[in-house]
Amino acid sequence: MTRHGGQKVLKRLNTAGHLRISRKHGKFFVNPSAGPHKKDFCLPLVHIIRDLLKIVDTHREAKKLVNNGYFKVDGKIVMDETYPIGLMDVLSIEKINKYYRILPDSHYGLILHEITDKESSFKLCRIVGKTTVKGGHIQLNLHDGKNILIKVKNPREPKEDTFKRMDILKISIPEQEILKTFRFEKDNLAIIMDGKNIGKIGKISAIKKRFGPNASTVSIEHNEELTETLYDYTFIIGEKQSEISLPTN
Questions:
Q1: Which of 116, 155, 235, 247 lies 20 to 30 Å (CA to CA) from residue 106?
Q2: Which residues does the chain have with pLDDT short of 50?
C-alpha cells in the first residue's frame, strides 16, 4: 500500500481479482477502509458506484453522492466512500429505487445481485461466535461484525440460548430482529462462500467433522453431483428452498 494524492491507495496489480479493475484506472486503486469484512474480500463503495454500476465517472463524483447520504448498507446511511461492503450485505440506493445483495460468484468472487425493495428489508448472517456477557446474557457474534444480544432469564439454565456457531440468522435490517434461524445441518440448502468452488449452491448431503484446522468438510449435492468443500466455506441459505433470491445463471 502507498499514499497517492493524500489518500491511502493500493497498486492496481496488488488488488484482489474479484474487484475486476480495468487498466483505465491507472496504477492505483482505492484501499477499503477498516470495517466488518476482510479487505481482500469486499467491494469498496466507491468501486461499486463508479466501476460496477457506473453511476458516475470519477472518485470525486462518487464521494459527493456518498456525502449526500444517497447510499445505505443494511439499512443505515454510509458516509464513507471507501466503506467495505461484503458477503450478504444489502446496498440500497433509494433515490433510484435500486437494491442489491452481495453474493459469492464462481467467476468474480463477489457480485452485486439486484433484489426487490421488499427483499432489501432483511439479510442472512452466520454466527461465528458466542460470548456470555454481564447478567449471563448471550451475545451472538455475526460474520458481518454485527452483534445480537439474547436475553436470558435464568443464567444457570439459559433456555433461550439455542444458537450454535455456523447457524444462520435471518434478521431484519436495520433493526436486527431475528426473523428465522437456520441450523447448520444435513439436507439444508447452502452456498459455498470461498475456495475453488465458490458460488456453488446445493443441498448438504454430508458433514464430516475431523480434528485439526481446515480438516472438517461438507459435501454439497446439486444436479446429482457432489462437491466437497471446507466446513467454514459453507453458508446456509435456507431449508428446502433459498430464503434469498439468487442469480439465474
A1: 116
A2: 1-7, 9-15, 18, 21-28
